């Protein structure tokens, strides 16, 4: 079957629908770190159709085509790649969207596709096992490993030589509310772990404040007595969320909670109150992390942040490389 100058089997042509979808989710991952679960449902349906279609063709061909070109690669894809994706999600190595993307790829691309474009046959290399989803995964890991190197080169070129130059870069405080990632700062200096910026946005929205409000009068907002009687919905911390910013209209309504000796209750910034009031854990943030992050952002004009790892970007790049070249790790040596 030929479509738009590309010659391939119908199952393989059907699978190409994944390319623009994965390009779109990669862009979404960069901009919002959020991908709707609904995007994976159509791809799952396409994967099932292509899998059954290809399986029937292989069964009719029989022999080597059925056992080695279809059955073994499919068994590895569904029996190895799927558990890997699930386990990495379970242990926190992947986000939910990353794991779903790999699950969909395992179903969509269990075997190596083959496309003929003019005199070119793509992918240019294959692997002994022939499990295409595993090739996409290893390609994505290799691409992901290049990110720290790119960050180091970028920072070194700018003269920013620090212990965190391979995982982050500096941003102005007023860019923080629209930046994804995690603080790499304490009041004492650089740190390899700090406040999740999604959790920061949740906190500010819960209080109806902006980061500029906090910087303008940190002493006021550090006092837990100024917490609102009716906090706003914290959202999920997404940059694009629509929220109410009332500037803390009810902040004056409270009086300080006191202990038996009459001193103010010790909950700077109302961090414990915030985490106790919301559903969930605010991305695992502790009261101490929230307080320290707020202190840093109230004082410093420029802070280092780690953008995190939007893994759907390496997955898309890994898929594109796999479709054109093949396996970066194994294909180079065979």
From TrEMBL:
Gene3D superfamilies: 1.20.120.1220
MF (Gene Ontology): aspartic-type endopeptidase activity
Protein localization: Cell membrane
Membrane topology type: Multi-pass membrane protein
Transmembrane segments: 39-58, 70-89, 101-120, 132-153, 311-333
Residue ranges of every copy of the Prepilin type IV endopeptidase peptidase domain listed in the record: 17-144
InterPro entries the UniProt entry points to: Preflagellin_Peptidase, Preflagellin_peptidase_C, Prepilin_IV_endopep_pep
Location of the Preflagellin peptidase C-terminal domain: 288-328
Signal peptide region: none
Source species, domain of life: Archaea
Region described as Disordered: 217-267
Major localisation: membrane
One matching Pfam family: Peptidase_A24
Key words of the record: Cell membrane, Membrane, Transmembrane, Transmembrane helix
A cellular component term, taken from the record's GO annotations: plasma membrane
Protein name stated in the entry: Peptidase A24A prepilin type IV
Species classification: Archaea, Methanobacteriati, Methanobacteriota, Stenosarchaea group, Halobacteria
